[in-house]
Amino acid sequence: MSKTLSSINTASDTFQNWVDRTNAIITLIDTEVVTANAAGALTSGNGFVNGHFGANTLVATNIKGGNVTTNSVITFQTNTAFSANVLISQQLAVTNSVAFSNTLVVTGNTTFSNTLAVTGNTTVSNTLVVNGSVTFANTLAVTGNTALSNTLAVTGNTTLSNTLVVIGNTTLSNTLAVTGNATFSSNVSISQQLAVTNSVSFSNTLTVVGLANASGGLNTTTANATTGINVGANVNITTSQINVGNSSVNVVVNSSMIVLNSSNVVTVSTLASSLGSFVNSNTITFTGTSSQVMDSVTLSSTRSAEYLISANNNTANAYQVSKILVIHDGTTAYVTEYGTMFTNTSVIGISAGANATHMFINCTPVSTNTTVKFTRFALGV
After folding, report:
1. Cα(375)–Cα(279) distance, rounded to whole angstroms?
2. In the predicted model, is pLDDT for residue 47 greater than 80?
3. DSSP per residue, 90-134
4. Mean pLDDT over the full length of the chain
5. Which of 270, 276, 272, 237 is nearest to 252 (CA)?
């Protein structure tokens, strides 16, 4: 950009030398020197200032780092505010705070050494690295890896096509979609649905207020889901303890098989059938006073049982409670009744019997309108 012209020597130079110098100056001003006026002067060509260049407003079609022949990284060393859209086709490196009040589109890598705040949409076609806090007021889309050393706050949707690493807190007000692996070294709070199509590892607490779906696997030290956790087929949940339900929540297992460990397999239907065979409750209303069968168990599956019985004489308003023990030797049934208590008068009598296949517990009511409630606890053969 610099041009050297020798001065006029009044002692030796001719008038023609003076005219030539004047014409050279006119040519420089017209073709090479950057000029300014109220209408906006225009100079065509390349130029380079080896020093500081200042302006209240810088207007340019393209801004690039390097020099007129070689491109390089452009570095903003102070706070930078962009009030319109910003399109960067090469690497962007910022060592201080950056505020974008509109869309930010970066085709190359993006490195921010301090805070990044974007009011509009943000699209990064390669790696995004931010050492300070990050606030996105709208959608964030990153095709490459994303590494954030501090807090990430995104008000809109977040789409990450590769690895996401966040060392600080992460707050997402809308959908989070991660195609690759995700590593969170601090607490993660998600107030909407979390859908993960690949492995997710949480080294701290995961709290999901909505529904959590993991089609691959879920590994976590502590997981709290107030609505539910759905896992796909053949998914292992490795933990020392699983707590499901509470005093006000019923737990439903929608599966045909429960694997307790590598060698013990219990099907849900078998478990329900087994519990029904050994623990049973029932209520019967008798309309006669003859001996009637209250309950029965098979000889081949049950050796002995204990009954807790509560009886109500609906006519005389009398009540009775007692316990009985029954046992058989394969042919004969034996029974003993103890702990009997009643109001007014006795309500029922108890006996036992057996045939070739079953042991029977018989009840003889005193009144023709008697209700008996019992719970059986049985032991196998």
Report:
1. 7
2. no
3. S-EEESS-EEESS-EEESS-EEESS-EEESS-EEESS-EEESS-E
4. 77
5. 272
Q: Going by DSSP bridges, is the β-strand pair 318-328/65-66 parallel, antiparallel, or unpaired?
A: unpaired
Provide the pLDDT for residue 2.
64
- Asked if 291 contacts 363 with a C-beta cutoff of 8 angstroms, the reply is yes
81-114 pLDDT, tens digit per residue, is: 777 777 777 677 777 777 777 777 777 777 777 7
What is the rounded distance in angstroms from the CA atom of residue 157 to the CA atom of residue 39?
45
The H or E element containing residue 16 is helix 15-31
Which of 54-68, 188-202, 329-343 shows the lowest mean pLDDT across its residues? Answer: 188-202
Q: Which residue has the higher pLDDT, 105 or 174?
A: 105
- For the chain, give every domain's residue range: 1-60, 73-257, 275-380
In tens, the pLDDT along 240-288 reads 556 555 545 555 555 555 555 555 555 555 555 555 556 789 999 999 9
Rounded (10°) CA dihedral 175, 145, 76, 38: -60
Higher per-residue pLDDT: 273 or 293: 293
Specify the long-range contacts of residues 75-84, CB closer than 8 Å, at least 24 apart: none
User: Can you tell me the distance from the alpha carbon of 269 to that of 262, in angstroms, rounded to the nearest whole number?
Assistant: 20
**Nearest CA to 223 among 232, 215, 214?**
214
Nearest to 118 by CA among 63, 89, 158, 78: 158
Tokens representing 296 are: 């029965």
CA 328 – CA 305 distance, rounded (Å): 10
The domain 275-380 is placed in CATH, from the list 3.90.800.10, 1.10.287.130, 2.60.40.1680, 2.40.160.60, at: 2.60.40.1680
The secondary structure element, H or E, covering residue 275 is helix 268-278
> Which helix (H) or strand (E) segment is 213 a member of?
strand 211-214
Instruction: State mean pLDDT over 63-77.
Output: 78
